[in-house]
Design goal:
Layout (H helix, E strand, L loop, with lengths): L24 H12 L2 E6 L2 E6 L2 H7 L5 E3 L4 H4 L1 H4 L12 H9 L5 H5 L2 H16 L5 E4 H18 L12 H15 L5 H32 L7 H7 L11 H15 L1 H15 L1 H14 L14 H14 L4 E6 L7 E3 L4 E3 L5 E4 H4 L19 H5 L19 H18 E5 L8 E2 L5 E2 L3 E6 L3
Parallel strand pairs: 2-8
Antiparallel strand pairs: 1-2, 3-5, 4-12, 5-8, 6-7, 9-12, 10-11
Helix pairs in contact: 7-8, 7-18, 8-12, 8-13, 9-10, 10-12, 13-15, 13-18
Length: 456
């Protein structure tokens, strides 16, 4: 007999609405994972949702012969801003294939290497700003890195400098936070309440994001360039299979979707700063590697592969922070129910929505010894290679994995190395304990750091 999937007791009609805080959904799910373990379910407004939180079940659900990405809930809501973009298109929408074939060649490891100098130099602008603020300067880690991420994404992909590392925060950052937060909350409320109370703000944030994209297009048209970047390809490229190109609305959709997707990267590096400050021996080891490999020379792309411990820091941060906190799965169409999981230990209906909770997967004690410990060495060399595939799903899975994962990896590595090479940092509040919130990502909350030029 299959084992019953555990669930918290609910209330009539509303189900488990009170067990999940819509203002901090992922942390609520972390707490449910801590209580119920590898698999659990909740009922929200009459709909059952199953959550998975260990490596073996994650790996099973990533079998694309049996399961596929589920586009529902918050992902459907954010289509208000990006329509059928790469991360929001339904499985049966042909436009996904068209856009993917046009844009994917620009985001291969070889293609993103062309952005290295741009990413490096903008990261250096941030550390130069910090060094110029004096020895007691205090900054928001996530706030500063959000600026850096948007500045880099906009310049590398769309050829436009926002000059947003200083001055007022670019409006796009607040709009992304507002729109993605509202997209998470909307499925938990009656539709009439969304329309009466929350619609106008959601609409405003969506307009702001689309205005950012429209301005990128207008800037290129008024400042012609021979850059063969992503924006050039959106404006001029054709799908090699169908011959179709992207219209204006579709270009705006994909321009907006890129910074939404890249917004997990600053969550990773701000979390890495926290973990490193909790483990100062890791800072010393990383700097020894950086100084040995790069020294006083210019930081170049070839150095990245020669910095395995720094790569281990990024991977271990991806594991512990779950900056991209999970992804949705459903059985492939035509599946006959019930669907058996874990060799028949559990069963779910044929059209069951399931969500992989990476906070739990990444702490599976069957895979990770001392799972709460920050140990970058477990993510280096043979130790990393031996990890099962289900323990490495930080960027999603299969054909619907994050299309920008190679750019994000390079950004994370360059930013980490630049920070460690150029500046010293310490907690503004030595008693701070990591707290997270987020919508389509998870970030440190209230985490301020003091920054100054690195003592050589």
């Amino acid at each position: 007999m299959p084992t019953t999937i555990p669930k918290p007791p609910g209330v009539p009609l509303l189900g488990n609405v009170t067990d999940v805080n819509p203002s901090n959904t992922w942390v609520s799910l972390q707490k449910l994972w801590e209580k119920y373990g590898e698999i659990f379910k909740i009922t929200v407004l009459g709909q059952d949702i199953v959550f998975v939180g260990n490596v073996a079940l994650c790996e099973e659900l990533c079998d694309e012969k049996r399961f596929r990405k589920f586009v529902g809930g918050p992902i459907v809501e954010i289509r208000k801003a990006v329509h059928a973009a790469l991360f929001t298109a339904f499985a049966d929408e042909p436009i996904w294939g068209v856009h993917h074939r046009i844009l994917a060649p620009l985001l291969t490891p070889t293609a993103v290497e062309e952005h290295f100098i741009q990413v490096r130099d903008i990261a250096a602008e941030l550390t130069a700003k910090w060094r110029g603020m004096g020895n007691q300067a205090t900054v928001s880690a996530i706030g500063e890195l959000n600026r850096l991420d948007l500045e880099t994404t906009t310049f590398c992909f769309f050829g436009r400098r926002l000059n947003g590392l200083t001055g007022p925060e670019p409006a796009m950052i607040k709009a992304m936070d507002g729109a993605t937060g509202e997209a998470i909350k909307r499925p938990t409320r009656p539709k009439i309440l969304n329309w009466l109370v929350y619609q106008s703000r959601f609409d405003k944030d969506c307009r702001t994001m689309r205005q950012y994209a429209a301005e990128c297009l207008e800037y290129r048209r008024s400042h012609p360039s021979d850059r063969k970047d992503m924006l050039y390809t959106m404006m001029n490229g054709k799908d090699p299979e169908t011959g179709k190109s992207m219209n204006e609305e579709q270009m705006i959709d994909e321009i907006v979707s890129m910074p939404i997707g890249s917004s997990t990267a600053p969550c990773v590096i701000s979390s890495a700063i926290y973990y490193l400050l909790q483990n100062p021996a890791c800072i010393e080891k990383a700097r020894k590697e950086i100084d040995s490999v790069i020294g006083r020379y210019d930081f170049v792309h070839e150095h990245l592969d020669a910095l395995p411990y720094c790569a281990g820091i990024v991977r271990e941060t991806l594991r512990l922070s779950a900056a991209a906190p999970g992804f949705n799965i459903e059985p492939v169409p035509g599946t006959q129910g019930p669907v058996l999981l874990a060799g028949g230990k559990y069963q779910v209906p044929a059209k069951q929505t399931m969500i992989i909770v990476l906070h739990g997967v990444n702490r599976d004690p069957a895979v990770f010894d001392q799972p709460e410990a920050f140990r970058p060495e477990r993510m280096v060399g043979e130790a990393f290679d031996k990890l099962p595939a289900g323990a490495k799903k930080w960027f999603g899975n299969g054909k619907r994995a994050c299309i920008g994962r190679h750019h994000a990896w390079m950004w994370n590595m360059i930013t980490l190395v630049t920070l460690l090479r150029d500046v010293d940092f310490e907690m503004a509040d030595p008693s701070y304990v990591l707290q997270q919130d987020g919508w389509f990502n998870l970030r440190p909350v209230g985490f301020d750091i003091k920054v100054k030029e690195r003592a050589k």
